[in-house]
Model the fold of this input.
Amino acid sequence: MAVKKAVQSGNVEDAIEKVNDLNPEILDTNPQLFFHLQQQRLIELIRNGKVEEALEFAQEKLAPRGEENQSFLVELERTVALLAFEDVSNCPVGELLNISQRLKTASEVNAAILTSQSHEKDPKLPSLLKILMWAQNQLDEKVAYPRIDNLSTATLEDPAA
Done:
């Protein structure tokens, strides 16, 4: 939760540190996730008007990764394009500065952390409830049994009724 909160608030350096404290292999084994975190860091520099720092960061940290992976290069070019516009709200890649971009990156980090901890990315309860409903539908055709009709209260229905 602390990592997700850090990304959502724009504190990417803190998020990277927390991920590495949790499990350093997460970023080592997932270059796309690491790139997206670094890309988000670049976006935050641009958002805060730190143009020179953003350019230096892009050249030193992100450009080498773009050379290794063509899709990273395309994303980097889109991000750096933000610097070409004075009014980023009307530029073609302005959506990168939206909060939704932070949420997207935070969700990606969260999924990687859960996967590294052998948790599912999606909660299990909805799947279990679907299985319960399916099983009850199968049983309805064969036997009378105490059926759960209201899932929110989990009260049993008397089969004799």
Notes: The helical segments are 2-8, 12-22, 25-28, 31-47, 51-68, 70-80, 99-116, 125-140. The two ends are 47 Å apart (CA to CA). The chain has two domains: 2-116, 125-157. The first helix runs from residue 2 to 8.
